[in-house]
Amino acid sequence: MEKHWFGVPVDIEGICIQNGCISSTEALVHLTCNEGDTVLIPSPLYYSFAGDWWVRCKARIGIVVTTEATGYEPTIAALEAAYKKAIKNGSKVKMLALNQPNNPTGRMLSTQCLIECCTWASKKNLHITCDEIYASSLFEGK
Ligand SMILES: Cc1ncc(COP(=O)(O)O)c(C=O)c1O
Q1: pLDDT per residue as tens digits for the range 88-112
Q2: For residue 134, which of 4, 18, 101, 128 is within the disulfide window of CB 3.0 to 4.6 Å?
Q3: What is the DSSP string of 59-86?
Q4: Is the Cβ atom of 114 under 6 angstroms away from ligand 1?
Q5: Is residue 105 within 6 Å of ligand 1 at its C-beta?
Q6: If DSSP codes are grouped into helix, strand and coil, which group holds residue 139?
Q7: CB 45 within 8 A of CB 74
Q8: Residue 89 CB partners (closer than 8 Å, separation 6+)
């Protein structure tokens, strides 16, 4: 077992082992969401999230639209738009889910973007989950 994860010390008490990445994120969604709650996630996204978080948890996906122009990085405006859309549809937003390196784009989010997303999510009192299944497939940080 590694004692560090990309330079960040890992405490054995903070590790929970599951039998797959999807079952791990699904468990987190199940822990944090009631039926009909929303998990915000930037597009483009791994196709399986929506179905896998729906089957048991009945959690909805709120797409945070990104474009090639921003390098597929979510902007605060896009986060706000997705948040407001969920609220308008009568759903409580419980979580911001990120995935990097991203499937399908393969991209990493910039540190600036991560800070902005996490600051925004914390102001909204949202849980933050990051699927980093491909974290070991980084080449010089990209
Ligand atoms: C972003 C992402 N998360 C999760 C999974 C699924 O991981 P697992 O098979 O460990 O549940 C994949 C598989 O392609 C993936 O691309």
Answers
A1: 999 999 999 999 999 999 999 999 9
A2: 101
A3: PEEEEE---GGGTTPPPHHHHHHHHHHH
A4: no
A5: no
A6: coil
A7: no
A8: none
CA distance 61 to 95: 10
Please work out whether the CB of residue 19 comes within 6 Å of at least one atom of ligand 1: no
**Ligand 1 near 133 CB (within 6 A):** yes
Q: How far apart are the CA of 131 and the centre of ligand 1, in A?
A: 8
The tens digit of pLDDT for each residue in 43-96 reads 999 999 999 999 999 999 999 999 999 999 999 999 999 999 999 999 999 999
Write down all domains in the chain, each with its CATH number in brackets. 19-134 (3.40.640.10)
Q: Are 28 and 129 in contact (CB under 8 A)?
A: yes
- Other Cβ atoms closer than 10 A to 107: 15
In angstroms, what is the span from residue 88 Cα to ligand 1's centroid? 31
- Calculate how far, in angstroms, residue 22's C-alpha sits from the geometric centre of ligand 1: 6
Global pTM reads 0.93
